[in-house]
Structures are given as C-alpha cells and as structure tokens.
Amino acid sequence: MIVNNWLNFVFFLAVLESVVCLYSPNDNIVLDLTKENFASKVVGDPNLWLIEFYAPWCGHCQSLAPEWKKVSAKLKGLIKVAAVNVDEQKDIAAAFQIQGLPTIKLFPSELQQRQGGKQGEFTKRPLEYQGPRSANAIANWAVSQLPNLVKQVNSQNLEEFLQLDYPVKVILFTDKSEASPLYKAIATQFRYRGAFGLASSSDNELAAHFGVTTFPILFTVSTDGLLFYDGPLKSEEISSWLEPLLPVPQRPPIPEPPKQAREQPIERKPEVVELVDQKTLESKCPRGLCMLFFLDPLADPEEHTNEIFFVHSRF
Asked: Do 207 and 249 touch, CB atoms closer than 8 A?
C-alpha cells in the first residue's frame, strides 16, 4: 500500500510539473520577456515577433503548447517565437489588454510614432491571430506577414538600385521570380543596414555585368567591390556572414515600455448577480458560459465577493 501511494504521489508530481512547465529552453522559444526588457528585445528588434500569452493552468494553453513548439520549429530563422506567462508578467498582459487565453499576437517590423509620446518615441502595433490553432495555420499566417523589402533588380534599373542610400547592397541571383520567406526575413533583419535585391538568373546582361555564371549566388556590392558568399543558404549562416559587412546606422531611439506596463494592471471585475428564480437566470445568462456559485448565507458577503473575483481572475 505504501509503495502504491508513493508511486501515485510521484505520478502526481510528474503531471503537475508537465502542467506548470509548458515550455523549456530546448523548445527554441523565447521565455525571458519581462516588463523591463520587452521594449529593447521586441520593439527595438527589426525582426518579427510572434508571441503567445498563456497561463500554465489554462486548459486551452496546455492544448496549444505542442502546436506552439511546432510553430517555433517551422519559423526558426524567419520569425522570433516567444511565450509570456501572464501570471508572472501581469504588466505586459495589461499593457496589451490580454483578456482571453491563449492570445497570439504578432509584433511587426515597422516602428510607429507612439500616440501621445514625445517626438522620436516609437512603438509597434501588434496584430492578433484569429485563425485555427494548428501549427501549420499559425506558421503560414505569420510568414504571410513578413514585409517584402527586397527590390527586383535587372539590367535596366541596376543603377537606380546602386544609388540607394546604403553603403552596402546585397544581391541574390536565383531562378525564383519572387523572394523566398528566408530572403524576406534576412532583408527585414537588416532593414536599417543595407539594401537587398533579387536578380533573375535569366538576365544574361546583368549576370555578365557581375561575372556571375552559377546560380543561386549571393554577394554584396560596395565601394570595396564585390564579395561573394560561399556558404549554405540558411538563415543563421547568412546572418553571421552579413553581420560584420553591413554598417550599423544610428537607429531610432528605443522606446520605453508601454505606459500601461508601468501602471497597475487593469482590474476587470465581473458582474455578480443574485439568482432568485428561473426568470433571473434566463435573463442574465441567455447563452454562453455562466459561472454559478452556491454560497453560505451565514458567511461574510465581502469574503464571498473576494472569492468570486479570485476565481474570475483565473479564467
């Protein structure tokens, strides 16, 4: 009997841990976003960020967790994927008015002037995902939000491209007619540091101009001449190669955390109605989900109210 009880206890702890710890660092999901670093990590980063706001006790969040891990794997090298525990980061949840769980928001690359802020204060306006909660659907939607900062380059507009106000230009020769998500993501990552172009391998005149004979091929153009990339066409490798080559300009000032994040979290109290008969029940809860509490009439009413508010805050 003691052995069985002990095994049951161990099993309970294992289940509890799996519920509380939905994600680990091995999932390639950013887990350390806080009120203090949100502006510098997310708003100050030209990459797109896809963030799930969740709570470990939330059943729908637990169901989404395996799909969210797949989303992270699918978007690796394209879009940053994060998860914010709203129980631990209440200020962030309040700042972005998180009401239902889980909530998925995509923070775009573009910076916008903060409304009511000082001149030069920027922020990002997130988009909320409303589609199916499958990894493919979420990942495909996120990729569709990648901005296309890649310019089509050909023998007719080459000089115009080279005159763009960046000291270094990046050109990819390929047989693809459109920029791939990978190339769009890299152009987004370095959007303030270089101009990115896409050239067709069928443009013989342009290929001859640069002495290009094999495709696909990636290279930079600057006052130092041409520099060709000879590694695999993968995000991490290309980014590492470009990092020292593209100068870092003076960026827009990194904004402070959203003002709401520096205030007290928004408290949303539920409407509490005493049900005295069937008619009241039908009028106050015609459809949807209603929470019913059967209370001790002799207990302190204020204690009842606090218990109701506490339960409401968890759902």
From this structure: no
Quick: pLDDT tens for 106-145. Answer: 999 998 877 766 666 788 999 999 999 999 999 999 999 9
Residues 183-195 have pLDDT tens digits of 999 999 999 999 9
SS3 content of the chain, % helix, strand, coil (to 5): 35, 15, 50
Question: Backbone phi, then psi, for 93, in 5-degree steps?
Answer: -60, -40
Q: What ranges make up the beta strands (E) of 86-139?
A: 103-107, 112-113, 122-123, 127-128
DSSP state, residue 159 = H
Whole-model pTM: value is 0.75
Instruction: Find how far residue 18's CA is from the centre of its chain.
Output: 24
Provide the CA 96 distance to its chain's centre, in angstroms.
Answer: 13
> Which residues are bridge partners to 151 per DSSP?
197
Q: Pseudo-torsion of CA 95, 101, 104, 110, nearest 10°?
A: -10
| Under 8 Å between Cβ of 257 and 36 | yes
DSSP H helical ranges for 105-254: 135-144, 158-162, 181-189, 204-210, 235-242
